Amino acid sequence: MAKELHHFINGAKVSGASGRTLGVFNPNTGEVTAQTPLASADEVRAAIASSAAAFPGWAATNPQRRARVMFDFKRLLEDNMDELAEMLSSEHGKVIADSKGDIQRGLEVIEFACGIPHLQKGEFTEGAGPDIDMYSMRQPLGVCAGITPFNFPAMIPMWMFGVAIACGNTFVCKPSEKDPSVPLRLAELFMEAGAPAGVLNVVNGDKEAVDTLLTDPQVEAISFVGSSAIAEYIYATGAAHGKRVQAMGGAKNHAIIMPDADLDRVVDDLIGAGYGSAGERCMALSVAVPVGKETGDRLIEKLIPRVESLKVGLSTDADADYGPMVTAEQRDKVAGWIDRGVEQGADLLVDGRGFELQGYEGGFFIGGSLFDNVTPDMDIWKEEIFGPVLSVVRAETFEEAAKLPSEHQYGNGVAIFTRDGDAARSFASNVNVGMVGINVPIPVPLAYHSFGGWKRSAFGDTNQHGTEGVKFYTKVKTVTSRWPTGVKEGSSFVIPTMK
Ligand code: NAD
User: Fold this and answer.
1) How remote is the C-alpha of 481 from its chain's centroid?
2) Please, are residues 133 and 472 in contact by the beta-carbon 8 Å criterion?
3) Strand order of the sheet with strand 132-140?
4) Who's near 60: CB < 8 A, 6+ residues apart?
5) Taking the complete model, does pTM exceed 0.70, yes or no?
6) Of 203, 277, 363, 364, which residue is most buried, by most CB within 10 angstroms?
7) Residue 384 Cβ contacting ligand 1 at under 6 Å
8) Statement to judge: residues 18 and 56 lie in one domain
9) Which of the four pLDDT bands, split at 50, 70 and 90, describes residue 483?
10) Residue 497 lies in a domain
11) Given a cut of 90, is residue 159 above it in pLDDT?
């Protein structure tokens, strides 16, 4: 019997009241294990009202007390790591080690959030005019909302609410309907860490819930991570309703492999970054671009046996390289992209379609696939596949290779593998992509730096977490002050001043 999930509003579990639900699967077996309630606009408004009521008290709580909640929450995340990882794997399908990585990366944002008082201090100029002081402060915005994807159900909610709440905002999270249990549990743990009711609410739902968040006048800012078409819609709709919006979208991350690269290490990196977590990562390396025929031939020769021997297994199998995909629909979509690649003339060297795990035929598994001779006119180069498929696009020269990520519609991450410092430096400076790895396959910035792609990988202009995140979740007020002793006869301070 599938369990009924809930919302988490004003410090308590709240049953869904809309009568609409969506099944959550165990991707290992294909069974429906839970039903996610899909909130009506009224239920979302109740969550917004709870966060709005909590805002004045939380904003007035001094920053070090807010930080103490973050410290306690971090400890609770560590204490509950195993339980959270099992819960995450059972709905997402990624192996336990990847689930722990997902939680750990979110936890690191909470660690960063513990130090946010330092970034919120503002600036002060003594004597900006005669007996005049000028200072600025970073104030919280109010109720902020986050809409998150299925692929990092722990890390991405924490990217958002960790920074927003430490800055003094209150938050409504609308997680992916495909794997909502971890975000719900995070909200419980956050309360246990000492956050007052309403500071963090979680509502489950679909477009109706999202549209309510995008249009409700009490919501000041929207953070979104998901696919680009939805990101663009979120950005346009949220901005039209006067909100700050940061909306991260899809990706097509290239690895440029120079002739002098250490190919054994490159292959290790491509296997981890291309196929890990079944390729369901926005920073997955999905295109390899060897420079020169010889590099390409050697790369393919080394890749084929490694892709063929990938171990696809249960999300609970510690020896598996990756587990099932999140849903049958996602798995079938990936298989459809492989069909398309073959139709358009790419060479399918390893075919993962039709893979079944013995005893788990209902699970959403797919084997690893490898394409060679993919060209930029093919859809499998132009579009995001979001599955365990690596496309090799061959380039004659470094210039030709470097153009590919720069000219692609997406600009999330990119990597170059080389021993040539000049080539790497010039590539990092000039490539039209937001996050660059030099001999690093998945260049995800750490919590105290900022995460964000370019072009159709991100709409809006402020990145997630780090100082950019603090800027997104705060507004600057600047005060110019003079006390009566400073008001001397004949003194004035007029802006702009000519003196
Ligand atoms: P998705 O766009 O389907 O869903 C993301 C969120 O949007 C979910 O909460 C969903 O309920 C909501 N949503 C879906 N359709 C909607 C609609 N029509 N109107 C309003 N809201 C809607 O994305 P997904 O499949 O959950 O996640 C995978 C995608 O996310 C991939 O494209 C991946 O590249 C991207 N992603 C990007 C980053 C990044 O930082 N750039 C990080 C992780 C994932």
Assistant:
1) 42
2) no
3) 124-129, 132-140, 474-482
4) none
5) yes
6) 203
7) yes
8) yes
9) confident
10) no
11) yes
